[in-house]
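Re: the request from the purification team.
They wanted to know what the chain is likely to look like in 3D before they choose a buffer screen. I agreed to run a prediction and write the result into the notebook, where they can find it.
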Amino acid sequence: MVNMLVTPFAREVKRLRSERGLSIRDLAAALGKSVAYLGKIEAQGEIPGPEFTCEIARSLGASPTDLLRLAKESRLSKLERDVSREYAHAFLQADAEQAKSSEMNEEKGAHRMATVVSLINMKGGVGKTTLAMQLAHTASSMNLRTLTIDLDPQSNLSQALMGPKKYVDHIKASKPTVVQIFDGYIPTSPSNGSPHLLDVNKVVVKKTGYWTNSTLDLIPSRLELSRTLKNPQGKERRLAKALAQIQNAYDLVIIDCAPTESILTEAAYFASRYVVVPIKPEFMATIGLPLLARSLQEFCLENDDHEIEIAGLVFVHSSNYSAGPEGQQSIKDVTKVAAENDWHICANQVRYSASYAKSAREQTPLSRTSYARDEVVRGFRRLASEVFELVGVAPVKP
């Protein structure tokens, strides 16, 4: 799993390089290393060994002792984070087992901040909305207070969760959507004589899940969100600021992102702690991965106080064809790219089943979709559990 963390060692290397007017490419050439490797040092928490640390110091005219000390401290911190991550899920499970009643869980939830996960791939048609919808339904079934955010102007997730008729009625009634979060205010309407400041709670559509006492809410999208792409200045942090107002109300936030490098992607980065990458195993499946890697790296270089990482890659099969030779070759290609970037690939996959499309049409979770096979339902449940474990979210006991 890629760890997009900027270490004290990385900050010092970047500072020294900038002071000497060197680009990352200049330093890489001087050291005989690739730009990608230097990028890992400055943006992904890579700590070189002592000998190469001294080479960096000499190339930058810096004190080897100072850089060695920072490298050692950064490496120890990384080891501590890795150990903490290894035990995090066990601690979460232990905490859940100690909760003896729903009142105890409720009290604990009141002080817990939401974990925000964005589903991103720069390539379209890879199953992001399908994965977002089913993960959200599964989280709701596990009693997790879940918020989904549709960050795609096509609004497929909004229609899948609300249903086409309810969604159209929502738009016709001029009710607020994620567009208003980026605009920062509610405009005039037939029932509102003047613009007024945004209350993010007014944008949230409550209980969009399947069950009567659903814990699944939605911030819907609409086509006009594309206007934000035309005038993006100063809007990249507005989604994060809006979520900060309501984060204590949720355990998990899932953002379904548009397949593009834009202000919407940057807004998702600012709002998120983790990224999950859905991938359709087909020809050119890897086309969006280098774009995503570069996009995240540039974001972290510019915002070194923000922690975000790729939790995992998920294969989403959309047809039986993807299980054939072409699909298998695609999986090999993606696995190679993932290994080069130290990305985790989920052991479980979204196997092809017509039940996924039927689930969206029937507005039901996979487990309640007509004629859905048990093996398909169980398979997705395993994947959801794996994803939730990767991002440190545990089920809440009723």
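For the purification team: The mean pLDDT is 86.
Please add any questions underneath this entry.
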